[in-house]
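Why does residue order matter? Because the sequence determines the fold. Keep that principle in mind as you read this record.
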Amino acid sequence: MGLHFATCNYGPHHLYAYTFIEEVLNVHEEVDPWRTEGKAELVKQYQDMAAIMDSLGLCNWPLLGLKFNNIVPMINSCLGTEYRADDLLRIGERIWNQERRFNMRAGFDQTHDTLPERFFKEPIQDGPAQGQISKVDEMLPKYYEVRGWNEKGEPRADTLETLEL
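Structure:
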């Protein structure tokens, strides 16, 4: 969740990018919550899904028990469309990039893609995550790469072209 909190277009928002769906509930796949490998891809996937759900006025909570692929037929039934999951995720990716570009025009940049310093220095005191600190800094370059952004967190021209933005 830390990587999402650091990169969320509207600040650290708990209602989007539910990576714990995989890390704890294993709805789509089994993911080790303590490893950083694959987290950039997972965060991107959930951000794109959340962008779609939000744009349709749908609650994200069904993703706690339903795979996104199971929600697509419901969306198509309501809209009279024939979208595939990949079509909708691409739309979500377009939304996420447009929001990023809006924020950049408003003065936000890669220095805002972080968490409070204490998350990097103060280990969690108890519970299943005892001793853990945030690893956002080591995941951020991969996240930018997966998003098709440059090292400054700006969407690259080829990404914008591919997304027809």
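The two ends are 28 Å apart (CA to CA).
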